[in-house]
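Exercise 7. Predict the joint structure of the components listed below.
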Amino acid sequence: MDAETPDILRDVWVYLARDPLLHLTLTLAAFQVGSWIYRRMGLNPLANPVLIAVLLVVAALAVTDTGYERYFEGAQFVHFLLGPATVALAIPLYRQLARLRGSGPAILASILAGSVCASATAVGTAWLMGAGRDTLVALAPKSVTAPVAMGITEALGGLPSLTAVLVILTGILGAMLGPPLLTALGVRDWAARGLAMGTASHGIGTARALQVNEVAGAFAGLAMGLNALATAALLPLLAKLVLG
Amino acid sequence: MVFFLTLILVCQLAGESLVAATGLPLPGPVVGMAILFAGLCLRGLPADLGRVADGLLGNLSLLFVPAGVGVMVHAGLLGREWLPLLAALVVSTIATVAVTGVLMARLGQRAKDAGDGR
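Solution:
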């Protein structure tokens, strides 16, 4: 808002910018635009709606010179629903109960392998390319759902808020690269596809899997939960071994 | 509807309390999911609870937007180390999807074959 803006407009803006409603609406509207573009692109994973919405919101906040804390006062109402939505993942999981009973050991082995692979390859690659310690610690739990990942980073003495960002980026990347990669590898089983998406890219991969197929969504939700468990238990031990 | 929404929140609250009380290295909502899952196994799934859950999960990706916008707070560090970060995320995501998906497809198929043989 520059000096030439009429006073009445500026007064309205100052009033609105203080109110959580504005940034709540901005979040929903940006996601609407993201979803619209995603549908127009024929559900192309590259046009990820979360990525588009994040870019739109960041641009809007930059233009209006608004800080993240002010934005979050409004956006927290959306953010809060992550908790109940995670609990609700029990329902698609329950609908797949029969399939779960048949392949318990296969599921556990696959998620455990994926969990170790996610941390080891991320930290290894960044270390080879000369990343600093803050980056390495924040990267280690990046495939785990955001609230757990942040807790793990905190326990390792890193920056939880940096982990949150890397977790979201991982989710978006997994949602973009996962489906074509699995198709190229010849993995057609919906359970295996969902498990891979949930292990590599937590809730965002689960959201993407749910859109495509309910079996895939249920296994993705299961993988997200078990991977959180496995990483939370293993990573502090591995870190102690590696860092001494 | 309100009853089942309340039930979901109660499960989350129970999960959060359990984590706070025991110091489990897990997020409260994941424990809440386990509690609700156990309940469903005992009592079955009411149709209305299914509808509430489908409504919550139908737009799951929207809920990640506020955390994603946090990218602006770390613009400095991300600007300095964007190359190792991008490489790490891409390599790790591809490797993890491939390892988990292929392993589950192989092991799951074997489990299915063994089940058919019986």
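Discussion. Residues 214-243 of chain A form the longest helix (30 residues).
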